[in-house]
Amino acid sequence: MKPLYVMALVAATLFASTGCTHHRSDAAGANNRARTASTAIAPEWGAKLGGAWSFKVTVGQHVTQGAIHLTAYDDRFLGTLSTDQGGEVLKIRSVQVNDTKLVMTVDSPQGEVVVRAELAANAKAFQGTVTYHNGQVYAISGSRR
Predict the structure, then answer these.
(1) Is 4 exposed, middle or buried (0-12, 13-18, 19+ CB in 10 A)?
(2) What pLDDT digit, counting tens, does each position of 38-65 carry?
(3) Which of 79, 96, 124, 133 fits 92 for a cystine, CB–CB 3.0-4.6 Å?
(4) Nearest to 119 by CA among 22, 44, 23, 64
(5) Ramachandran sector of residue 51 (left: φ over 0; alpha: ψ -120 to 50; beta: rest)
(6) Are 87 and 22 in contact (CB under 8 A)?
(7) Which residues contact 69 (CB under 8 A, 6 or more apart)?
(8) 73-130, pLDDT tens digit by residue?
(9) Which of 111, 113, 102 is nearest to 144 (CA)?
């Protein structure tokens, strides 16, 4: 697969709540429009994971950067994701946390994108993989802003 195609794929499918190409007010508005039910979470994770996150995905020699915005509502997270590769804001469909294991499912125009990561003990960083709708897997890491 050609590197430019992979980058276009990453840009089109990846996270859309990142304010990398948006002003914060735009990202916040997108977050409000993207409200969706997600898998139930323990109350303590709401305070730990809610808020703005930065992330990067490594595709060969290229690094795509982006942002995730999560808001805890009762026992669920709502959120959006965006990258520095385009203007799309993608809806985060679900967030699951089991101990320090994080699974986040993002809806993209091409299909489902799934992040599987290990949370740091202080819940201020994560590291893992992102699996695209076509099965390609890349390294991802992120931290709270």
Answers:
(1) exposed
(2) 455 666 677 788 899 999 999 989 999 9
(3) 79
(4) 44
(5) left
(6) yes
(7) 17, 18, 19, 27, 28, 31, 51, 52, 53, 79, 80, 81
(8) 877 888 999 999 878 899 999 999 888 999 999 999 999 999 999 999 899 999 999 9
(9) 102
